Amino acid sequence: MKQSSTGYGPAIMRAQENLLPEDKRLFEDPYSEKFLSPFYKFLVILMRSPKILNFLIKIRERLTPGVIGGLICRTRYIDDVLNNAIKEGVGTVVNLGAGMDTRAFRISGIENIKYFELDFPESQKVKRSYIDKKVGELPSNVSLVPIDFNSQDLGEELKKAGYTLSSKTLFIWEGVTQYISKEAIDNTIKYVAQASTGSRIVFTYILKSFINGSHIPDGLNSLYKFTLKKKNPLWFCGFDPAEMHEYLSKYSLSLIEDVGHEEYLERYIKPKGRDLTVFEIERAVLAAVK
User: Fold this and answer.
1) 50-63 helix and 67-87 helix, angle to the nearest 10 degrees
2) What are the residue boundaries of the structural domains of the chain, listed by start?
3) pLDDT at position 2 over 90
């Protein structure tokens, strides 16, 4: 799965979002800037100037159009899924490859739910140091579960941490699947399918057409070269939305929805009157255990 360094990109974009006027933000996240390295923290300080913030957003839009929109929209979408799960009485949240995710701190009602964050030991060590220095303490309902996804068994490590599959669970798997093999994805989905009926998983994925290079949207050539056209590619796996229903059905998972840039624009960007594009190469799936 993704290594610790990849967690800072989404974190700085969430921190950046929190600098916007309240009526323009897609979500509230006062914690992300607390989990940034000194360099990224310095950038956030600079972006407190609206002129600098808008300038940097425009530069990023010109270089990789839709990336900012895609990341903040997927954050809001998963926030919505989590908020709905809390209202419906979910007992446990399992965040796979959590990186510098802040939902355990900022989502209302999360303090009443068992929350497991899994990530590489080195990533969690860094995050724990930020929590101790800048947040105060780890909430009593939150467990940080160190795991080497390449060599340790997901089910075994969760069991050791006190998780039980009989608890109605929401699994969050954000910004991870493109970094791992199809076999690793299959094994994770297979494990999720063992959870109690009504449990859900929300995960993001990159389009297979981008991974294999058959369709590279305008403006994303640099992203394609950076993630895929190198000796050691960063991304490996993608999906075709047309195949998602059948894929999930193999594991007794029911597809609830598969959303992308069109839904994000209609649900989140346009209602806020934001002049922001959303890239089409990443989508999010919500599925339930039958």
Assistant:
1) 100
2) 4-289
3) no
4 falls in which pLDDT band (50, 70, 90)? very low
d(CA 150, CA 212): 24
Q: pLDDT tens digit string along 7-48?
A: 788 999 999 999 999 999 999 999 999 999 999 999 999 999
Closest CA to 279 of 59, 58, 70, 78: 70
CB 240 within 8 A of CB 208: yes
Class for the domain spanning 4-289: alpha beta
pLDDT band of 6, cuts 50, 70, 90: low
| Residue with token string 């063992």 | 194
Q: Judge contact between 192 and 171, C-beta under 8 A.
A: yes
Mean pLDDT, to the nearest integer, of 110-120? 97
Mean pLDDT (the chain, rounded): 95
| Strands 200-206 and 169-173, bridge-based pairing | parallel
